Give the backbone structure.
Amino acid sequence: MIDVSNYGLIDWLSIIKKEKFDNIFPPSCCFPNDALRDEYLANVHLVDDADFRYLLRRFLIPNTSFLTDDFQRKYLINLPKRELIERIRKHEFTRRILINKNPWEGITWILDLLPEEVREAISVVDSYLTAHIGFLPDFRISGLCDSIEILRARYFSKEHPRETLLNMKPKEFEKIVKALYENLGYDAKLTKDSYDDGIDIVAHSDKPGKKEKIFIQCKRYNKDIGVEFLRNLLGVVNSEKATKGVLVCSSNFTHSAKKFADKNPNIELLDWNILCQLLNNEMGVDWPIKYHEIIRADENEKEHLTYKGC
């Protein structure tokens, strides 16, 4: 048995490729310590895709059995008959562990969802944890939690330079924000410049319990955005009976602007950092590379709105 609890990241990654799962402690189904996990997460964007998938495959659960299964079987078959029947009725896993040689149905297939459907992959792992948390060995619970963390870090948490936004033309900036709100489930339209009163996008939602009309103002500025823009936006929101106004910028907001938004809950601020994170979440971390495709798709739409009366 090889004790890897004090190994560095490079040595640990090397040893788990050479040794069998059962030859390593802590087992290679999770990070051996927090420091090593944090170092891996900080550099996950630099990891080769094949190596990244290999580690996920170690952390996820295949169709298998665990040493703890025998203890669970012995415990179950010694229960009073009525209690055992109730457990079988309540938990599908109890039925599997009594009948199947390999009761653990694997989820390594989520690798086929990457990279396009990362949120769905994370949802699968989270649901698997929820369903089996009472039966899983501790190291396996840690490994599934680690899987979620590295998926989020690789695909959602990448930082992009602010120049990515500043290098866009103002109309391109509006179109990428419009695409973001469409991904968030809204019916979003650009306004006509001659009628917008500073409103660049109108986003609607007609979903039951979430009916909204949002006025969005986009500022592709290099300097911080002051409170005067928010006062104008609030005035339009109130006069046109919109649900809220959102000011999206490629910079930051002044202290007075943030205080103004705090006092007016129907005003929301998205600075460049928040905007980049939302774009990561909704469009993937490679959105700076493919945003031209998004803009070209938008240019095929001929319909533009005024906010008045919509």
